[in-house]
Amino acid sequence: MRSPLNIKRGPILLTVILGCLILFPVFSPSPYLIHIITLIFIWSYVSTAWSYMGRFGLVSLGHGAFLGTGAYITALLFNFFNLSPWIGMLIGASGAVFLAAVLGYACFRSGIIGDYFALVTLAVGELVALSIIAMREITGGSLGFTLRSLGNSPLYFQFGSKVYFYYISLLFLLFALYLWKRIDKSKMQKALKAIGEDEVAASSVGINIIRHKMAIFIISAFLTGIGGVLYAQYITYLNPHTLSGVTVSLAIPFKAILGGMFNIWGPAIGTAMIVSLEEYIRVSYGTKFVGVSEVVYGIALITLIIFLPKGLYGTVLEIFHKRQRSAETIT
Amino acid sequence: MPPSLIQVLIMLSLDGIGKFFGGLAALSDISLKVEEGEFLGLIGPNGSGKTTLFNVISGVLKPSSGRVSFMGADITGLYPDKICHLGVARTFQIPRPLKDLTVVENVMLGALFGDSGRSTYHSEETAKRDAIKYIDFVGLKVGELTMPDELTAAGLRKLELARALATSPTLLLADEVISGLNQEEILEASSVLNRIRDEMGVTIIWVEHIMGALMSLVERVVVLDYGKIIAEGKPSEVSGDKRVVEAYLGEEEQEVY
Ligand SMILES: Nc1ncnc2c1ncn2[C@@H]1O[C@H](COP(=O)(O)OP(=O)(O)OP(=O)(O)O)[C@@H](O)[C@H]1O
Ligand SMILES: [Mg+2]
Questions:
Q1: What per-residue confidence (pLDDT) applies to B256?
Q2: DSSP string spanning chain B?
Q3: In angstroms, what CA-CA distances link A212 with A47, A106, A142, A221, A322?
């Protein structure tokens, strides 16, 4: 049995962490740290959304497609038609959903699962990047384009201070974590768990495989599309390589899998580690290693999946639980 | 009452079912009618196509030719979940529990998703209550947190049955639910099957190698050999049939007793 102390520890720890995060910008004068943590929030939000489906065995290596679709549609609507990104992002995310729906239906109908699904999504992610580059006249091609600056204009998702983005990103991340919890309590979670383990057994007890996979894919794509908007509004610059394409498409699952996609905190922990590490390397070694990241991500991803499928945090948790269990049986 | 007035409802009708795996004809030209309320035995040597026929009926495999009708509707090629919703449940010869879920959760899946009419408003509470009811019915003794890997062979077969029953079927396809069990367990599981038919009113097609148990329960037997129906009739008629004896003589380690 767990002691009462253990039961209380979780929520208290959470409240303390959340409190620190909320108060951090108030007490820290360092815009640089605020910037890094904002990036961690944004990418944690995205890798959490990725894990919604990844943890049920639906490993997408093409989430850059949704990131890019969401960000570009929203930014172009703003630059050309002056549509506020707050509204535009719903349209952008709907574009991501449309793409996911078409891709998902094609894959799930024809029984493309596992490694094949990963490969198809990888190709689609790259396809979106190439399409963005090809539409050079409006997207600026591989050079990308800058968002029109309106100065401080909250109604247009632009702020005079970066601190606003810090809090907005934190809110989005909290929402993604809350949705994870909601999914965990839903019937859909049970269906997806069964599907992830054994599709034949699942469908034989009446679980509609295509419908459930489509549902989680669409939810994940929608949130990821919004994530692209969040990142673009923050950086105020859109580039096909940072918003779709292979690098970012591999970086998202890498963060999630490193932390551990089966636990609600895993993707965020993995993201915090990677963003910090990338920043450390950038500061210490400059841009010497730019371009190496694809190779590193690729190799690291394969190594992780083979040797540490539950990720760092997931594995630590497992060891901890085992210890606790064996301690209990001794006493 | 004259025979013509007795209403016999054909629940399942197979017309010219064929199934190829590459060049191998696992099933050829299978035609069969199963009446509502019937307890039908399906036997045949190893590899004769029994499981393949279950896979075709339940939608796991699409037949290469022929038609499957259930309650008068053509269900050929429908997805397994749809066929399950129509009232056909099956067990797996090699048990397929979902290993990450508890035994109770495994059975709950059947209750939550198996019955289309009910599952839209079926709450977790009622699903759990139903799951426990079916777990008791099949005689499975487990706690709330028991995982499938803690079950014995007999336990896993009971889990298969309970999960299938939880979908509230009208037709049950039971694939070797007593093989690998000891004498006592065989008697218990056979009586469970009998009660599923008598108390729940479920029509059953039962595949089994253990002849003694099967022949004493079923009303009619269909014999498959190399994917073809070679005999059909009452247990007493079939067990004396020359072709059936010959089909089984080819088999070395047949568990007949
Ligand atoms: N998915 C498959 N792919 C290829 N061949 C298959 C497949 N499923 C079954 N077969 C082949 O079809 C034939 C019939 O197999 P099936 O499993 O239906 O036999 P069975 O009567 O259930 O046998 P058993 O009594 O051993 O369970 C066998 O030759 C088998 O090897
Ligand atoms: Mg078989």
A1: 47
A2: --GGGS---EEEEEEEEEEEETTEEEEEEEEEEEETT-EEEEE-STTSSHHHHHHHHHTSS--SEEEEEETTEE-TT--HHHHHHHTEEE--SS----TTS-HHHHHHHHHHHS-HHHHTT--HHHHHHHHHHHHHHTT----TT--GGGS-HHHHHHHHHHHHHTT--SEEEEESSSTT--HHHHHHHHHHHHHHHHHH--EEEEE-S-HHHHHHH-SEEEEEETTEEEEEE-HHHHHT-HHHHHHHHT-SS----
A3: 20, 14, 36, 14, 33
Q: Provide the number of structural domains found in chain A.
A: 1
From chain B residues 113-132, the ones with a CB under 8 A of any chain A CB are: 113-116, 119, 124
Q: Does B109 touch chain A (CB under 8 A)?
A: yes
Write out pLDDT tens, residues A10-20. 788 888 999 99
Are the beta carbons of B100 and A193 closer than 8 angstroms? yes
Rounded to the nearest angstrom, the minimum Cα separation between A279 and chain B is: 38
Q: Which residues span the domain enclosing A170? A: 29-245
Return the number of other C-beta atoms located less than 10 Å from residue B86's C-beta: 18
Which of A184-188, A210-214, A277-281 has the least mean pLDDT? A277-281
* Residue pair A192/A131 in contact by the 8 Å Cβ criterion: no
User: Residue with the nearest Cα to atom 3 of ligand 1?
Assistant: B21
Kindly list the distances between the CA atom of residue A41 and the CA atoms of A36, A138, A168, A268, in Å, as whole numbers in the listed order: 9, 30, 9, 8
**Within 13 Å and on the Cβ side, how many CA atoms surround A63?**
35
Chain A residues touching residue B110 (CB < 8 angstroms): 205-206
- Domain ranges in chain B? 3-46+62-209
pTM of the model: 0.89
Mean per-residue pLDDT for A117-134? Answer: 94
B58 within ligand 1 shell (Cβ under 6 A): no
Structure token digits, residue B98: 């979902």
Whether A331 is covered by a domain: the verdict is no
How many helices (H) and strands (E) chain A has is answered by 15, 2
What residues of chain B lie within 8 A of the CB of A204, using their CB?
58, 60, 80-81, 84, 89-90, 92
B58 interfacial to chain A (CB closer than 8 Å) = yes
Answer whether residue B2 shows pLDDT above 70.
Answer: no
B245 or A186, which is more confident:
A186
Secondary structure E strands in chain A: 145-146, 237-238
Q: Domain B3-46+62-209: which CATH class?
A: alpha beta
* Residue A273: inside a domain: no
A126 - beta bridge partners?
Answer: none
> Among B109, B126, B160, which would you mutate to test the A interface (most chain A Cβ atoms within 10 Å of its Cβ)?
B109
What residues of A are in contact with residue B98 (Cβ under 8 Å)?
A: 193-194, 197-198, 201-202
Torsion of CA A261, A266, A269, A271, to 10 degrees: 20
Residue with the smallest CA separation from ligand 1 atom 18 is B49
- Distance (Å) from the alpha carbon of B46 to chain A's nearest alpha carbon: 22
Query: How far, CA to CA in Å, does A301 sit from each of A56, A74, A254, A311?
Result: 17, 31, 6, 10
Alpha-carbon distance of B64 to B49, in angstroms, equals 14
Please give all residues whose CB falls under 5 A of ion ligand 2, grouped by chain where several chains appear. Answer: B 50-51, 93
